Amino acid sequence: MRDGRPPLSVVIPMYNEESVLPILAERLRDVLDGLNEPYEVVAVDDGSADGTADTLAKMRTSWDQLRIIRLQRNSGHQAALLAGLMRASGDYVVSIDADLQDPPELIPEMLQKARADALDVVYGVRVDRTTDTAFKRVTAGMYYRLMRRLAGRQVPAQAGDFRLLSRATVEALRELPERAPVLRIVVPWLGFPSGEVTYLRAERAAGETKYPLSRMVRLAADSITSFSAAPLRIATWLGLLGVVTSAVLVVVAFGAYLVSSTTPGWASLYVAVLFLGAIQLLCLGLLGEYVARIYTALQGRPAYFIAEDSGPPE
């Protein structure tokens, strides 16, 4: 340990993961004890409603390296992950989900690669997602293609929140003004030297998924509106298209008037009004997303509240 800081911290956000915790602890502890160097495990309980908190408390009685952070309420996966990263003290910090779809056995390889190649970020990249449903594979592929188009090629394809960060990267995240960053986009944007390790994505070890379609859509919306102004540009182009369409309709109506074609154009007018109204509503919705983020930032509300932390006081 250097200045009381362990070489490695492992951050695990979790919500209602009581059933998978014994399996997770067994596999993760075997891996970390095998490193033969100090470490800490930061388990962030995101306001679980099942027995997750009690199970973690029992585990800590026989696992000194386990640190438990319990959030006051369910704040979301990204907020729980950020809470763990901000309180982890290791020289390197690995984040991994509790469902064991990302293998903890890969952590030593990530750590070795970071040290050998002087990397600040090592991404766990999935090369096979056959254990996911076809719908999940298609939507995930669309998400990563969109993110790479908006944020640049530095965003690794098929890399979720299983990654290793150096202390320098964590401190850079700490300096960002955003209170609720989408780490899948922000970490690559920082531009620190990075590498990848690949693995086959496994099935969930136990329990049910905590990322239904609604949360996937919310993640995609947050990723876009928190990082890029592209939707505003889309709104601008749609508005321009609406103006051009209106101009064409005016010319058509004027031409009909000149040739004395006075057949009532209620259908054309109805379609035009609907079309323009739809564009206006879409533009208002997109603008509303950004206004809402500005409003949230001005409020200055933290993304999470710590109810309990079993680690040393900061």
TrEMBL record:
Gene3D superfamilies xrefs: Spore Coat Polysaccharide Biosynthesis Protein SpsA, Chain A
**Start and end residues of each Glycosyltransferase 2-like domain:** 9-171
* Location(s), subcellular: Membrane
Q: Provide the GO MF annotations for this entry.
A: glycosyltransferase activity
From the record, give the transmembrane residue ranges.
234-257, 269-292
What family does this chain come from, according to its entry? Belongs to the glycosyltransferase 2 family.
Q: What is this protein called?
A: Glucosyl transferase
Species of origin: Phytohabitans rumicis
